Amino acid sequence: MAFSGRLITFEGIDGSGKSTQLQLLARLLGTAGYDVLTTREPGGTQLGKRIRAALLDGEHDSVDPLAELLLYAADRAQHIRQLVRPALQSGRIVLSDRFFDATVAYQGYGRGFQLDLVHQLNRLATEGLTPDLTLVYDLEVAAGLGRIRDRQTGSSVEQPDRLDREPLEFHQRVRDGYHALIAADPHRFRVISAAGSIDEVFERTCREVSTVISLTGSI
Predict the structure, then answer these.
(1) Which comes out higher in pLDDT, residue 115 or 60?
(2) Residue at 215 is within a domain
(3) Domain membership flag for residue 196
(4) Which end of the chain has fewer CB within 10 Å, C or N?
(5) Could you count the other beta carbons within 10 Å of the beta carbon of residue 10?
(6) Residue 34 pLDDT > 90
(7) What is the predicted pLDDT for the residue at 60?
(8) 72 pLDDT exceeds 60?
(9) φ, ψ for residue 95 (rounded to 5)?
């Protein structure tokens, strides 16, 4: 049967495990017969990959905050027009690792830019496109930063990016920003505790996603 596209976005502080949950959900949806596109912001397009490198590499003060805000908007505009909207129009399910809510949380609440300005840039970049569902993986800031530190040990060393190296207070403001967004739009957001095992968190993810997409049927 015909199926209209859906946009599900994954949000949360650094170290919340949202990227892992996105990949698990993509695998499950593919098994159920859905045509799934996984993407991320920044970096979902070729231009976005270059913007991502500029934004996340280097020291924490290597990118001016205003330039950072505008680069995220530029990445999003390209992402929407080149990738996300065409996929939705063809009936695909789009799972995006971060979307415009991240800019509100990180650049609005985290950096302190006026929220009206951030929302205006988001509306311009997205042309009004809003996710069907936004999953916010909630975790204490100290726990998220601890997970980031853990990634730097063992055989597969993952270096922290520029935002990872921001002070704890910055990440707390980001988390507070997500909570404010959730309170303002409880219909779109679903809060998922990111505490516990990957499997436990995925069970919570599936419960929320099943409210908009069948996880057992196929197209």
Answers:
(1) 115
(2) no
(3) yes
(4) N
(5) 28
(6) yes
(7) 60
(8) yes
(9) -110, 115
Q: What is the dihedral of CA 174, 178, 181, 186, to 10 degrees?
A: -170
Q: Is the dihedral of CA 161, 166, 172, 174 positive or negative?
A: negative
Tokens coding 191: 């809060």
Can you tell me the mean pLDDT for 89-96? 97
> Does the N-terminal peptide bond of residue 42 adopt cis geometry, omega within 30 degrees of 0?
yes
Higher per-residue pLDDT: 70 or 151? 70
Distance separating alpha carbons of residues 151 and 149, to the nearest angstrom: 5
Alpha helices in the chain (DSSP H): 18-31, 46-56, 65-79, 85-89, 100-103, 115-126, 141-150, 168-184, 198-209
Residue 88, token pair as written in the block:
């939705």
pLDDT at 164: 81
Q: Which CATH number covers residue 123? A: 3.40.50.300
Please state, in angstroms and rounded to a whole number, the distance separating the CA atoms of residues 98 and 209: 16
Residue for token pair 């707390």: 172
**Domain housing 193:** 6-209
- Cα distance between residue 178 and residue 12, in whole Å: 7
Q: Are strands 133-138 and 189-193 parallel, antiparallel or unpaired?
A: parallel
pLDDT at 218: 46
Helix (H, G, I), strand (E, B) or coil at 176: helix
